[in-house]
Amino acid sequence: MEDVRHSREAFAALKASLPNGQLPVLTLTGEDGKVEKIAQSSAILRLICSLGGLHPSEPAAAARVDALVAMEADTLAAYRAVKYPGRYGLGGLDAAALDAAMTAVSATVVPTHLANLEKLVGDGWLAGTEKPSAADFAWASSLRELRVGAMVGLDPAILEPLPRTRAWLDRFLALPAVQAYYVVEPAGFGAAPAAAAPAPAASGRRQPGSPRSPTAAAAAAEKHKPAKTHAGTYGGPSSDEWASGKLGRPSGALDVVETPSYLS
Ligand SMILES: N[C@@H](CCC(=O)N[C@@H](CS)C(=O)NCC(=O)O)C(=O)O
């Protein structure tokens, strides 16, 4: 198994050869030597979990996992549309309209979905499985990115009114295999304003501090709207930022997929 990261330039060169022109892509080589490329992160995640004994075989249990993976995609759909407006047919919106949309996404849309997640979180893993499942991997990678301020446009304070979700995220990030995968940068992610992005400690835990109310989180989102990389668009991390390790990069060969090194 090999984890191949691509720069923006390498991705552009590869794009035409990829299913849907997108990453991530999992390349499988069959015993007969036949090569197959599988797209869609959720499908790749389930496949990896199945191969690793982390996807339930019982249909209802598998459906609970799948529902949570789909819920993560729903939660961030509007964010992704505003962040990448051209891909979603929103390229005609001007910067002010996109700013207003991002403010609403941060203040209302994402917090509403996350409040639903909070109701589902218990003391164990998200889908009630004995071991972490695709649901935990899908949610944790996104919420970790949100927490370190790497989802430009979303205020990390969104997580503050969600104690069960934060406790589950801490539990997941404390797993030795997850710790080995991520290199958490204590300084947090450079793209986010310091006041809106509490830096995680090296352990991955939150810094102490009194929680803000959802209203305060919305106000903070408004106050600390991030700088945009170009008019009306919210850029992801640059390849240099990824390369510097600020967001946390894999520290060892772990998985299998080709992923962009420049985007989440
Ligand atoms: N639904 C797809 C979305 C994949 C996606 O948006 N990939 C981005 C990089 S993270 C991409 O390839 N963007 C370039 C493009 O769409 O042209 C998945 O979950 O894998």
How would you describe this structure to a colleague?
By secondary structure, this protein is of the alpha+beta class. The chain has one domain: Glutathione S-transferase Yfyf (Class Pi), Chain A, domain 2 (Up-down Bundle), CATH 1.20.1050.10. It is 44% helix and 6% strand. The chain contains nine helices and four strands. A four-stranded mixed sheet has the order 1-4-2-3. The longest helix has 26 residues, at 95-120. The radius of gyration is 18 Å and the shape is globular. The model is unreliable at 185-256 (pLDDT under 50). The structure holds glutathione. Glutathione is lined by residues 21-24, 40-42, 87, 260, 263.
**Percent range of helical residues:** 40-55%
Please give the CATH class: Mainly Alpha
> Judging by the overall fold, what is the CATH architecture?
Up-down Bundle
CATH T-level fold name: Glutathione S-transferase Yfyf (Class Pi), Chain A, domain 2
Q: Main β-sheet: number of strands, strand sense, barrel status?
A: 4 strands, mixed
Count of strand segments: 4
The stretches of 5 or more residues where confidence is low (pLDDT under 50) are 185-256
Please describe the topology of this protein.
Layout: E1 4-6, H1 8-14, E2 25-29, E3 35-39, H2 41-51, H3 59-83, H4 95-120, H5 134-147, H6 163-173, H7 176-181, H8 214-223, H9 239-244, E4 257-260
Parallel strand pairs: 1-4
Antiparallel strand pairs: 2-3, 2-4
Helix pairs in contact: 3-4, 3-5, 4-8
Bound molecules: glutathione (GSH).
